[in-house]
Write a structure and sequence with these properties.
Helix content: 40-55%
Strand order of the largest sheet: 5-4-3-6-7
Number of strands: 7
Radius of gyration: 44 Å
Shape: elongated
Distance between the termini: 141 Å
Length: about 500
Amino acid sequence: MGTFLAPLPSPQPIFAAANDPELSSILAALLAMNEDDFGSGEPPWADESFAAADDLTTTLPAFFFDQHDPPAAMPFPAPVPLAPPPSPPVPVDDAAHHQGTPKRKRGRQATSSPSGGASTAGSRSTTRASSSRRVWVRERSTEWWDRLDSPTTCPDAEFRRAFRMSRATFSSLVDALGGAVAKEDTALRAAVPARRRVAACVWRLATAEPLREVSRRFGLGISTCHSIVLQVCRALAAVILPAAIRWPDDPAAAATGFRAASGLPGVVGAVCTTRVPIVAPRNNLAAYYDRRLTKRNQKPSYSVVVQAVSDAGGAFTNVFVGLPGSLSDAAVLGSSALCCARHGEQQRLVGGSRYPLTEWMLVPYAANARNLTWAEHEFNGRVAAARGVARGAVRRLKARWRCLQRRTEVRMQDLPSMIAACCVLHNVCERAGEGIDPELMRYDELDDEEEDDGAAAAHGAATASAAAVQARDRIAHDLVVLHGSHAIANSDMAFQSKFSEHHSLMTHPAQ
């Protein structure tokens, strides 16, 4: 079937519209507005192929007329020339442009005229607008930090209480980090100085304040402050850690300090394991479950393990971080690099009863396994004195850097670098002779190490090698021979006194 077009009943309205001068001008204007449809910038009647305006005629299609009325020639009205469209206004001021003028799309070019005047004016106005463009940056107050950083407004004692170190030690730390934390200024904004970056990180680690408060103190945004803390922690772990935390180069010199403090021969370090509370992880939740923290907090708690080896001066020589908090001290030691290293009799370590007894690890005798001899009692006292150095170092570590005492919002992948940064700062303070405020040591969270377990000690002695047991017995015997003769004599006198008192009570009971 074809398409059927019904003819119009009467051609009079068409002829009336074509012969009316007013309607003809309107029709010519409508045709001129569609000049782009002809593929040229000029109207079609400007071409030479078109006739003069007075001679233009056209023939209407056949379906406009009745089939019994033949079509007739109709004069075409003369076109009316149209004025070129006005060019869009160019904003003079950038602020006024943003307030009252809608934004222009990128890549849009100014309309050019045949003479090129529009393009030249557009380029000039664009250059003038770009030169007056300004970047909006929120001004934040740094008055609090400026007061602490100035020696005239903040004495050194107040600075030490705030950042756990003197101003001279802090300046040396900033110089050591150098370009690892420094940033360059850009065309958009000025970079945060390296000194303020390091100060924000140290304050965050020392006080464990929320990021909102830390950012307000140092004139930073919250996200910027969080990024700066992580960047400085990574820089501390990458730049300063290899030189600050290292195994002693001279084991004999390191053993001298422990021999003077405890009398144990060949001891170069004391091992202590602590836990750092964390937010419940998304994966492997049961592995990070901490039984002791859960009992103390009365709610499910989770942690990661920090194993530290301390020298006689309280500085760390080896740190192992990141394992789940549910692991035992012996399991953590077995996973660390200490087990893989070759230790001899001149490089022994001292540990608690929860560590295994080996040829290079000295642990105390189990108190509840059997009655201890005087030599074994003396040996346990010397081991406790040596381990007290490591436990004191861990207590000062947590006292200085309170972020290790409470849960933080740091992600699991960023937690090892944060803990390593705290250990680096601890060594910086210890070797610089920085004291610690006694008020910081009055926290129950510092005593998070479990008491020595006699059952664990007995199990460790049962599984130890014969050579390790003989080495420990020989050291205990030598301690009594060299240092414990007067202690044994005093103990015998005390026993004789107690026996005489008991015999007198039995012979002459009270009336």
